[in-house]
Amino acid sequence: MIIEILKSKIHQVTVTQADLYYVGSITIDEDLLDAANMIENEKVQVVNINNGERFETYIIKGERGSGVVCLNGACARLAVVGDTVLVISYCSMEMEEAKKYKPIIVFPDKNNKL
Hints:
Blueprint: E1 2-14, E2 17-19, E3 25-29, H1 30-36, E4 43-48, E5 54-62, E6 69-72, E7 84-94, H2 95-100, E8 104-106
Parallel strand pairs: 1-8, 2-6, 3-5
Antiparallel strand pairs: 1-7, 3-6, 4-5, 4-7
């Protein structure tokens, strides 16, 4: 049996920009992506802890060391600059493998730095 489990999470990162007229996605500092074992174009769920919004989008790699977390396109309406969000990725694997898997969770500081 294949199940879907938590692969990795960037826990409580601050939204630094929102660009409504950009082609949709979330731009994330490459340092955060590397630490969380996430890659460009990966599907993620974003959870806004300020307003409860949840949405899915894909990752665009942001400038390394910039601390950028930018909501692009329609999802820019679901958060404002300064909101705190969780960025979550999932993966599918066999049940027995999933029982042994340890997700990667990154805890950035208030400036989105490791």
